[in-house]
Design a protein that fits this description.
single chain, mainly alpha, 10 helices, about 80% helix
């Protein structure tokens, strides 16, 4: 069940930059280490419904229901474009002069949670990924799925926190330049918009 192959595959999957990573990194740069932990917590919590859907078999329903998939997909697309617009519009977000008001902890968690829960491809991914590591003929396959899910969540949280801490170090040492702040804002805006466009163009 939990073997070296599973852990290596899981690490590769978690390390690949996606919506959650980009949000955690941007939060670490803007708000600091503590905020990046809350972003990581929200992103990790956002995969719980997808894991639950996989375990309960709801992912199979979504996989066969074009309407359910499309509704959730376009809700995610709309939210990603909203985040891109908000990032582009907030010109003080990457300021390091201390005048920017820190984001509320709960709002960071909720925003991160929504970014992941509104991505239907996560449910399809877990449906294809987790069952591969359940031992054939296992007497308690549900327990194995729950264990695999717990390990996935723990590694996701740990890696995202690491991303956030690295981003905060980057902020302290590099983001003293207003031009760098401006290009970071443009870069994260483009990243969120690009992820939204990618999700919009995706199929099951």
């Amino acid at each position: 069940m939990i073997n070296l192959e599973f852990l290596i595959t899981l690490l590769i999957v978690v390390l690949i930059p996606g919506t959650g990573v980009i949000y955690t990194v941007s939060t670490g740069i803007v708000q600091g280490r503590a905020a990046s932990i809350y972003a990581s917590l929200g992103c990790t919590a956002g995969i719980v419904p997808h894991l639950a859907a996989t375990i309960l078999g709801l992912a199979a329903v979504m996989h066969t229901s074009a309407l359910a998939f499309q509704v959730l997909k376009y809700a995610g697309v709309a939210y990603l474009f909203y985040v891109a617009y908000a990032t582009w519009r907030d010109k003080s977000a990457f300021s390091v002069d201390g005048t920017a008001k820190p984001a509320d902890k709960s709002s960071i968690v909720i925003k991160a949670f929504l970014l992941n829960i509104l991505n239907p491809k996560l449910t399809i991914f877990f449906l294809a990924f987790l069952p591969q590591f359940v031992e054939p003929g296992a007497s308690q396959p549900l327990l194995q799925l729950l264990t695999l899910s717990a390990v996935f969540m723990a590694m996701t949280f740990a890696v995202f926190v690491l991303y956030g801490f690295v981003a905060h170090a980057f902020r302290r040492h590099v983001v003293e330049s207003s031009s760098v702040q401006r290009w970071l804002r443009y870069g994260f805006t483009a990243a969120f918009a690009g992820l939204g466009a990618k999700l919009a163009a995706s199929e099951k």
